[in-house]
């Protein structure tokens, strides 16, 4: 089982100098691979995933699947798993507490076996993150639910039945989980106000290639004609799509600290909201079909109003890195975080570094810029804010120490190695005690 050493990042900042040069290669998308791994439970044959990032969330998902008997083999960037008898229907409690995405296992597990038990999932503390959408969806498909000893117990001994499900709020994992449940149900399921994220489309497309009957991916109404039994077709591989959030994070870093940065192996089509926002701020980029070059001649960025939104809007997962860029833009910027209610708390720490930000309420903040940032001791509160701290530390003057980097390791593969290769002064150091 996967265990984590206690480590920090020590970063020497460039004091605003834009001197990073070279290529930042984007890996496979965490939030796509996690769901396709979970989909292995829908199959009677093994499946193979390539371009899988070697990050902690993926390792936890693999541990969860192995605990269910899936026999996963993770070699380099390839995972082979599934095709085995599912040996239990109860999700491992410790692992589920570590990973919000553990919830996506409930859809295929309930659909395949007629039962699942699980605790409330854990993950980054960025808001309340309820699971009502999942429970209501399963109930509509005929599952009985009871809560006992800190666990949800769901059963549908005669199989799930197709249903019409309206999502009161677009939910990425909610859509993916009920989509997977619907593939094996009997009858037709209609998911209304479904999420449009590329990761949802990519999962759905993989399932279609394996024989599932799904229409409307990438639109708010997805229709699934249930197969009434498992997917069995052999030899279907899944190539993980590029991680748009990793690409966007490097793009923002390139804007702030890059002399000549090439972000390669990415999918710029999935980043339109980000590149359009950066253009509006004054950033010049060369956008190709699979790469973006930031060649930083422009000295001044303009302040903007930034509103996060479900895809294709500006991703909430890039809101914190973007705030760092806004501390260096001229004028007053406004951030409106519409998806989560606890995703601006990192701003206090940026203020300690010298930023001038003001929290208006749980969803809204003002940022006045530009303000020089200085080195600080920074405690990552979650994955994306942790990455924002790395960016802030890299452009600050002096030394910063970023703590709680286990959050960052959840979603960014070898981040320090990639950044060192373009000239960043960042080191991973072990800390005792
Ligand atoms: C996914 O989380 C991503 N995680 C998140 O990535 C991402 O921030 C988020 O989508 C939004 O894009 C994975 O894909 C594993 P939601 P998810 O359900 O699915 C509310 C990262 O850093 N809601 O789309 O958990 C919820 O509170 C992360 O990689 C309910 O009200 O998010 C939120 O306000 C973190 N009831 C909104 O919906 C529910 O039952 C959207 O959340 C479920 C969600």
Architecture overview:
It is a single chain. This protein is an alpha/beta fold and 433 residues long. It has helices at 30-39, 56-67, 93-98, 106-113, 132-140, 172-184, 198-209, 244-257, 272-281, 319-326, 347-352, 383-395, 406-409, 415-421, and strands at residues 7-12, 20-25, 46-50, 73-75, 78-82, 115-118, 144-148, 151-155, 164-166, 188-192, 213-215, 221-225, 237-239, 258-264, 285-287, 292-295, 301-302, 305-307, 329-336, 356-361, 364-369, 377-379, 399-403, 425-430. It has 14 helices and 24 strands. Strands 17, 18, 19, 20 and 21 form a 5-stranded mixed sheet that branches. Strands 22-23-1-24 form a 4-stranded mixed sheet, with helices on one face. Helix 10 (319-326) links the parallel strand 18 (305-307) and strand 19. Helix 1 runs parallel beside helix 7. The longest helix has 14 residues, at 244-257. The structure holds ligand EPZ. Ligand EPZ is lined by residues 31, 34, 100-101, 124, 127-134, 169, 171-174, 316-317, 339-340, 383-384, 411. The site of ligand EPZ has 25 residues, from helix 1, helix 5, helix 6 and helix 12.
């Amino acid at each position: 089982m996967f265990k984590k050493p206690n480590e920090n990042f020590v970063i020497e900042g460039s004091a605003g100098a834009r001197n990073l040069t070279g290529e930042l290669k984007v890996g496979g998308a965490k939030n796509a691979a996690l769901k396709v791994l979970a989909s292995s439970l829908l199959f009677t044959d093994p499946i193979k995933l390539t371009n899988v990032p070697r990050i902690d969330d993926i390792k936890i998902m693999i541990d969860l699947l192995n605990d269910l008997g899936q026999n996963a083999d993770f070699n380099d960037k390839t995972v082979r798993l599934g095709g085995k008898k599912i040996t239990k229907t109860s999700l491992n409690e410790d692992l589920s507490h570590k990973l919000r995405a553990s919830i996506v296992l409930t859809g295929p597990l309930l659909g395949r076996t007629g039962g699942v038990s699980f605790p409330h999932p854990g993950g980054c503390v960025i808001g309340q993150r309820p699971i009502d959408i999942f429970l209501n969806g399963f109930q509509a498909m005929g599952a009985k639910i009871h809560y006992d000893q800190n666990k949800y117990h769901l059963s549908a001994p005669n199989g799930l039945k197709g249903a019409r499900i309206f999502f009161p709020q677009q939910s990425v994992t909610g859509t993916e989980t009920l989509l997977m449940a619907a593939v094996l149900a009997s009858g037709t399921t209609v998911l209304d106000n479904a999420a449009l994220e590329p990761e949802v489309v990519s999962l759905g497309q993989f399932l279609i290639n394996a024989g599932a009957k799904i229409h409307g991916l990438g639109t708010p109404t997805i229709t699934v004609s249930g197969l009434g039994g498992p997917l069995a077709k052999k030899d279907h591989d899944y190539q993980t799509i590029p991680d748009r959030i990793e690409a966007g994070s490097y793009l923002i870093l390139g804007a702030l600290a890059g002399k000549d940065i090439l972000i390669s192996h990415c999918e710029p089509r999935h980043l339109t909201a980000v590149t359009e926002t950066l253009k509006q701020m004054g950033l010049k980029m060369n956008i190709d079909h699979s790469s973006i070059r930031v060649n930083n001649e422009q000295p001044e960025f303009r302040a903007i109003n930034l509103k996060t939104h479900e895809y294709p809007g500006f991703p909430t997962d890039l809101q914190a890195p973007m705030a760092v860029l806004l501390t260096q833009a001229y004028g007053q910027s406004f951030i409106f975080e519409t998806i989560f209610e606890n995703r601006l708390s990192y701003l206090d720490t940026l203020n300690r570094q010298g930023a001038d930000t003001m929290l208006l309420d749980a969803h809204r903040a003002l940022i006045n810029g530009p303000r020089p940032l200085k080195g600080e001791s920074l405690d990552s509160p979650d994955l994306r804010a942790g990455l924002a701290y790395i960016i802030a530390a890299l452009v600050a003057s002096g030394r910063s120490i970023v703590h709680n980097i286990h959050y960052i390791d959840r979603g960014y593969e070898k981040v320090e190695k990639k950044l060192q290769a373009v000239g960043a002064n960042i080191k991973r150091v072990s800390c005792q005690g």
